[in-house]
């Protein structure tokens, strides 16, 4: 058997990566030592995962730093005259290593100053460079720091030169034969190390937020990568304090703020809840049904009956039939529902923004509850992992690969049916073992292209209604129609299983769509919904379960952000909030309404729905419309100026307040944990 001999340049390349990885790991250890006072004993068990995940971030940076060197080695392996730029490479790496160390220096200073790892917003200090430099000069040992950076740059250049000498010490390093294979092998290994994990999704910043303890999460981050991860969001989205203050009076009244203060922008409310003797320990199950749009349901499509179980369930439950998702996109729905703040970011989604991962969640007031999250795919999708694991105290995360019985269905993971089966099994077993109430979120995803119906489908039978009728009834195809029917079928099977469980009699279920879906024809809907694009936002909310004794239809306008406050109201539990969400079910004084943010259109739409009225603003062109009327496109703002001004102030005010709250709704330990 022929002995495998590694070329010198391959050994030198990965040796360079290893050396930098060890350095970055050492810096993480130093960070822990310097700021160890922030580490509480309860977090000691999390240190292993912190260093494990952190090591993968450090490896990604080490690989990224080595890429220019690897490309240079590859060129030299095929063309030895390229070695003429060896000194230039040494100088380049002297500068790169010094810049990386500078970032670590700044990171330590930044964290000691405001207990936050460095991010792209540090560039704001460049707006007042003289003041910033003077502050640094008077606060930190700048001279010693610069000397240290210069010395480190020299050392980095020397090391890069040494690595180059070792790389081509072997004569076989100049041979074409074999080098091409080693090049592709090295490229694949580098890519795998940077990908970071055996998963459908690569390692993401949200993996750092595996704990509700801020110090543990900060310890996991890599400062250089954190600058990169936050750069896009600092550029794209921020908030305007003056605009927030301009609309404060209208918004604070709408939110029923306890102690309004326009100067401090106080949005805090303490909800007292019911007397202790009247509080309930119901289990709460929140079910995100993928794309369960109002225009797709049996209630608006009785002739083709796509959701018979949803219709049946709504008739014996509380149904909100004027309910809206503030924005479209699933990750935005998760953020809005969990935090109570509409996701009005213009770039990607708020769940992907590491600058605002720390958010207060009202259900953390349920300190005696177990908390669960179930998804058929990966929680890394949309970076929702960070929002959930970091903000839902002690949440048990179940995703593909964590279930006892699972069969991958398509790109979205296991089927909705398998997901519901596993969620029911786990909740039933946990209830029997722990005898504690629980709060659970189940997020479905099967009603999505490619509209896969699993082989194990509990007797589901597709129907062919014809493509023409499907288009007229809000569907893009018969395949989509059957996919929604299967989603409804899976929900029915879940309730069949749940009704046999020990937890069912004491459980309240919240079933709703994560967002609406546009469909240009939609002959089953009033035309105003389609042309004003409210079809993208209207969804049902069904509150079901044995504790719901009186079925009713509620036509008050409400929003996804209201779901968790409604749940807390049904339980009668006290809680604290600053967010937009309110208990519009049990609080008769709460003004109905929903913010609408159409991020997918250009320019973006900012609107507000209240009853049959819709304030619509797109790029400054605004109007007031009765969207269910035959003359839905008539602007009636001049006929009803008082309503127009009121709804305009709420639309623009809630939009600006939401942007402000992204950065001002952090957890407060004495109230949240």
Automatic annotation (TrEMBL):
Which cellular components does GO assign to this protein?
plasma membrane
Where would I find the Sulfatase N-terminal domain in this sequence?
283-572
Report how it sits in the membrane. Answer: Multi-pass membrane protein
Family matches, as Pfam families:
Sulfatase
Q: Which residues cross the membrane?
A: 12-39, 59-79, 91-114, 142-160, 180-198
InterPro entries xref list: Alkaline_phosphatase_core_sf, LtaS-like, OpgB/LTA_synthase_biosynth, Sulfatase_N
The active site lies at: 330
Q: Which PANTHER family match?
A: LIPOTEICHOIC ACID SYNTHASE (PTHR47371), PHOSPHOGLYCEROL TRANSFERASE I (PTHR47371:SF3)
Q: What is this protein called?
A: Sulfatase N-terminal domain-containing protein
Record the organism: Candidatus Avelusimicrobium gallicola
